[in-house]
Amino acid sequence: MLSEDRTEKLKELLSSLSIEGCNIELTDIALTHPSYNFEANEDNMPDYERLEFLGDSVLRLSVSDFLYKKYENYDEGKLTKIRSYLVSDEFLAKTALKTGLNEYIKIGLHEEKDGGRNKESILACTFEALFGAVYLSLGFNGAYKFVIKFYESLEEDLTRILYLYNSKEILQEYTQGKNKDLPEYEIVEEKGKAHKREYKVCVKYRGEVLGEGRGKTKKEAEKNAAFSAVKLLKLTDGELSE
């Protein structure tokens, strides 16, 4: 049985997301990390994992439909690459933070101290679980509308997303096309506390620095460094404006 305070908070969240019809109990489950039930000795209580499984399928079908209809001139390869970013943990986590979803997650004390509330993987899983909860509450049409609104309002240019998300792959294909040497990534700066770390990475090819990038994770910094190199080497077919 949910407390009155928890119920009101969840209603507040659903209202802010314009999905007031979503079942409150399912919403609570979608926002419950396994660590919460473990520490509360309630291992028999549900957490977000099953709803995440369902929500992942809802998300992929919705985004596939959206891209197929919106970009009629894109082939399946380009659509697949764009979708890979739009359903990635990175994008979902960023969107979850923008909506303030992290503030409503029930999480264990140990995981909380470890910065779990803002971890990319936990945020992404929680968001997918919420898609599953909306689907069970409002059906596919309701879930589709909820999912797609996060993509219809994208301010980012999708061509830029395509190159940014796949920049490491693009750069590696380029270097392998010249010879068998691979790009090398090196952390040149690291600062901030453990839960607010920032990295600066440079990418080198045969000793020459091709680009630099910053990020909150090593992966993000490497990707931004590769993106910088891709632009420098003009591997974007002129599709990106500076």
Features:
single chain; about 240 residues; mainly alpha; Ribonuclease iii, N-terminal Endonuclease Domain, Chain A; Double Stranded RNA Binding Domain; 2 domains; 3-stranded antiparallel beta sheet; 3 strands; about 60% helix
Assign the CATH architecture of the largest domain: Orthogonal Bundle
- Helix/strand class: mainly alpha
The number of E-state strands comes to 3
Q: Order of SSEs, N→C?
A: HHHHHHHHHHEEEH
What would you call the shape?
Answer: globular
Chain-wise SSE layout:
Blueprint: H1 4-16, H2 24-30, H3 34-39, H4 49-70, H5 76-86, H6 89-99, H7 109-113, H8 120-152, H9 158-165, H10 167-178, E1 184-191, E2 198-205, E3 208-215, H11 218-232
Antiparallel strand pairs: 1-2, 2-3
Helix pairs in contact: 2-8, 4-5, 4-8, 5-9, 6-8, 10-11
How do you describe this structure in short?
With 242 residues, the protein is mostly helical.
What would you note in describing this structure?
The model has no long low-confidence stretch (mean pLDDT 90). The protein has helices at residues 4-16, 24-30, 34-39, 49-70, 76-86, 89-99, 109-113, 120-152, 158-165, 167-178, 218-232, and strands at 184-191, 198-205, 208-215. Helices cover 59% and strands 10% of the residues. The chain is globular. Strand 1 (184-191) and strand 2 (198-205) form a beta hairpin. The protein has a 3-stranded antiparallel sheet with strand order 1-2-3, with helices on one face. With 242 residues, it is mostly helical. The chain folds into 2 domains: 4-154, Ribonuclease iii, N-terminal Endonuclease Domain, Chain A (Orthogonal Bundle), CATH 1.10.1520; 166-232, Double Stranded RNA Binding Domain, CATH 3.30.160.20. The N and C termini lie far apart (54 Å).
